[in-house]
Amino acid sequence: MFxxxxxxxxxxxxxxxxxxxxxxxxxxxxxxxxxxxxxDVVDFLEWFFWTGMRxxxxxxxxxxxxxxxxxxxxxxxxxxxxxxxxxLALEGELRAIIQRxxxxxxxxxxxxxxxxxxxxxxxxxxxxxACKAASVQERRPSDLRRTAVRNMVRGGGSCxxxxx
Length: 164
Prior knowledge:
By secondary structure, the chain is mainly alpha-helical.
């Protein structure tokens, strides 16, 4: 049968109780963003909504990764949690965000998303206040990642990994 120690138990067969299930509809995220005062955080979260990138990946984005000739952005494998690089086409909302940051670019800071030259840090309190003001309950910034993946799949995109 099963080797000792590898016998499945009821405990191991139970579903995870803490599995996240939250998603955002566009109207809800727009309401939350409208209630945030910090424009840097608004752009950061909007980028998160559209791309599904992890916050650490967004914080690590630098200007050399953005090619304004082809309007593509390359996330290098070294900056990815999974070790897999990706390329994003900078179109629509993503291009608008990049263009805003280009106009305000600091030559002394290689980061795309920053606050006065330093990486964007915590914004939990601002997030909670904006959600409350927008009457959006029980949503976390991490729900934006799940929402982005769902939206990509609905749009016919693939969420498969690819090698550099």
